[in-house]
Design brief:
The protein is an alpha/beta fold. It is built from 14 helices and 13 strands. The chain has two domains: 178 residues, Glycogen Phosphorylase B (Rossmann fold, 3-Layer(aba) Sandwich); 172 residues, Rossmann fold.
């Protein structure tokens, strides 16, 4: 019997990519997939293997002021009604929500239609939409062993890990070879739209302060906005550091695998990919992240001895250099930290999640 699975996700790649990975697994099993997302989510859906897609209205519930709240309520109401129509026409067997407010209309619609649903939480802190949906969910799946802010639930609690795309699985097969004293040291820096500017101000100056012999060995790949491109390029050039700059890298998993060291934010997808691929890192949690969940994510790798953490409020070139210099000066230690990163999140998360869904639907049949 063909499963009919609806996936509710949107807003950011952090929510969309795990949903895409589960969709890939579902299609391998011959299931039909409906994607419930918003306009922002569609930016990440070019390769999403959905049989059908419903673009829903959604709005951030954390708004202030009566007019903003009225507009939010209207958008959410329209989103729920559209999701109800899509789920009914699709004849969904189950809905899985991946968090973020764009997933809310799909989950609320499932509840109102009495379609069973589960939630997957990518972060080490249960997000607000998932927190609200969790008590009545058939399951709460989570990416890391740690899961803060979990309410009382009726369904199963299962650490599945975070589903990753095929490109990440492919990159995981590239072994880590620590740099010898004569080798170039490949450094990858990426921070997304909310990290590029800070990273452009801090990391080039930090690396420029290194002793000349070490500085000359650096090969930096840095994600930087078009606005900051010239200033960052000039900073690297003045320090004599070879650098490739771009606002976006479509092959980021491969670039992670080819790097000796990574500097990044600590969103759930990034932390998961660093663990699956196995690379040492310096993580800078996003200071405005809801419930400070990026710090909790980073601590998973910090506690394993695979990463260092630099809080945004203390992110100066001097503080970054103090952390980076001993790491990039010791190739053997980098190898140990790369090994420590591997396996800190469960492997085969998409398959585990699909098995969980299959088992629940078998019980319901």
């Amino acid at each position: 019997m063909t499963r009919r699975l609806a996936l509710a996700a949107g807003g950011t790649g952090g929510h969309m990519f795990p949903a895409e990975a589960l969709a890939e697994e579902a299609k391998k099993r011959g299931w039909s997939v409906l994607l419930l997302t918003d306009d922002r989510g569609m930016r990440y859906a070019k390769s999403f293997p959905a049989d059908q897609t419903a673009i829903l209205k959604a709005a951030n519930p954390n708004v202030r002021g009566p007019l903003a709240k009225l507009s939010m309520a209207s958008a959410m109401g329209q989103g729920v009604m559209a999701a109800r129509r899509a789920l009914t026409a699709f004849k969904a067997d189950m809905v899985v929500g991946f968090g973020g407010y764009p997933s809310a209309p799909g989950l609320f619609a499932a509840s109102s239609l009495k379609v069973p649903y589960g939630v997957h939480e990518q972060n080490a802190v249960l997000g607000r939409v998932n927190r609200r949906a969790a008590p009545s969910a058939r399951f709460v799946a989570h990416g890391f062993a740690r899961l803060d802010r979990l309410p009382k639930i009726k369904g199963k609690l299962v650490q599945t890990g975070n589903p990753v795309r095929q490109a990440v699985q492919d990159a995981a097969g590239i072994p880590y070879v620590p740099p010898s004293e004569a080798d170039k040291i490949r450094v990858l820096i990426f921070g997304g739209s909310q990290g590029a500017s800070l990273f452009g101000r801090v990391f080039p100056q930090a690396l420029a302060s290194f002793p000349s012999p070490l500085r000359e060995r650096l090969e930096v790949t840095h994600q930087v906005s078009e606005t900051d491109h010239d200033a960052v390029s000039q900073a690297y050039a003045a320090a004599g550091i070879t650098a490739e700059l771009a606002p976006f890298f479509v092959d980021l998993p491969r670039r992670i695998a080819q790097s000796h060291f990574v500097m990044a934010r600590s969103g759930a997808s990034t932390v998961t990919e660093l663990s699956v691929i196995g690379r040492p890192s310096l993580l800078v949690p996003l200071g405005i992240a809801m419930d400070d969940h990026q710090r909790a994510n980073a601590e998973v790798l910090v506690e394993a001895g695979a990463a260092d953490i630099l809080l945004e409020g203390k992110a100066t070139p001097e503080a970054a250099a103090a952390l980076l210099l001993p790491r990039l000066s010791a190739g053997s230690d980098l190898g140990n930290r790369a090994a420590a990163a591997r396996g800190k999140v469960p492997a085969n998360a998409a398959a585990t999640l699909a098995d969980l869904i299959d088992a629940l639907l078998e019980q319901r049949a």
